[in-house]
């Protein structure tokens, strides 16, 4: 395994450990990622003795590292050097949990430490000791599991998952990220223990959830979370999407699997996490707005509006940011039907301008979401919709080239309106401003200053205002 020990830190750690007369090993994710050929800039060291003492000894030997940050209660220490992170921990008998509320510092052997890690592929260690520098210590055959793409707990799953229930989410996350399979006993353990996720903070759950969403094919992770019932622990609104109802021989599509298909489609064309969230949320209000009538069959009227309102509530609960990212997701949910609506035969420039105005900077992302939303099994239908969207895209480009409304700001501001008529802030200013915006978007006037000023004067006159 010596080929993985190319970073100069390994020799420094080895020598520091000799000075302290402590054994030390590289362990966990770094070993796994090296073997998988994935880049990793986090290195975990486990030592038989004090992790904090070793970190201090290492830091003394480094010129450009940060100070040692340590948590005495947990016996962990951290050093950052350039863009590398080094974690030091003393081997322990109990589970590896940095954020556990109860301190657990009973020291143990290397094998005690490996026993209490989450998966066999994360429990491999490489020795940095003089006698066997570079040799692999792999008590659970992690290499074989890694080669076969298997996630398996080192101990009985009940034990490993009781130690830290978040590991169930980690299993799904690794399965989705690495395209691995969860071994049967481990999988059954998750099904039995899914409800224990309730003791885990939402921040930690959402952290794993976002890693699942950021993976290449997020549907893999979502299906696993759904089947094991992990998803039921924190995302009722998504669970409600699942299922098909039939009435008078008419059924609607299963919106859960449809949503996952849209999410995968988006993931294929964009790495933007928030666009992926928009895919997850785009039909979230369908269960709440579902209705049936003989004329139309199944309807979900207003689901885009109701859904856009649900975004904030869900983001708050899931501890996702309540800032411009949330507003972006909410906006895309609200607008997700608009481009398709523009595929009708007769579409006015005005409708196109209004969409460009409403979507603003996010027009391109909206089109990506809209394209991804076409999931019919009928290939001819898919092709027809895609073709129609292309036509809409072309129309959007034409209108934009001509009118530049994407970041449209009326050329006359509210302050200027007050100045022109020498009036104070009032209802009239708002009315004129809105009328001006509508006139430009509807193509009544061009978006230039001269036409805008004339329009403002005319509108003011209609409201009984005169230029002094
Ligand atoms: N670990 C664990 N149980 C957890 C979290 C971590 O047993 N709930 C152990 C695993 O051995 C893991 C190591 O701690 O490999 C480091 O954890 P972390 O840095 O969180 O994850 P990585 O496995 O390195 O993966 P990633 O960097 O992708 O999060």
The chain-level structural class is alpha+beta
Low-confidence stretches at least 5 residues in length (pLDDT < 50)? none
Instruction: Classify the fold: give the CATH topology of the largest domain.
Output: Hypothetical protein af1432
N-end to C-end Cα span: 86 Å
Shape field: elongated
**Widest β-sheet, arrangement of strands:** 3-4-5-2-1-6-7
Number of domains: 4
Task: Describe the protein.
The protein is an alpha+beta fold and 468 residues long. It folds into four domains: 1-144, Beta Polymerase, domain 2 (2-Layer Sandwich); 149-234, Hydrophobic Seed Protein, CATH 1.10.110.30; 236-403, Hypothetical protein af1432; 414-462, no CATH class. Helix content is 52%, strand content 10%. The chain has helices at residues 9-20, 29-36, 51-61, 110-115, 142-148, 157-163, 166-178, 184-193, 202-213, 218-228, 236-239, 255-269, 273-281, 286-289, 303-317, 324-335, 338-341, 349-359, 363-372, 379-403, 414-421, 427-441, 449-462, and strands at residues 23-27, 42-48, 69-71, 76-81, 84-90, 125-127, 136-137, 150-151, 181-182, 246-247, 250-251, 291-293, 297-299. A seven-stranded mixed sheet has the order 3-4-5-2-1-6-7. A two-stranded parallel ribbon has the order 8-9. A hairpin with a 2-residue loop joins strand 10 (246-247) and strand 11 (250-251). The longest helix has 25 residues, at 379-403. Cytidine-5'-triphosphate binds at residues 28-29, 42, 44, 96, 117-118, 122-123, 164, 166-167, 170.
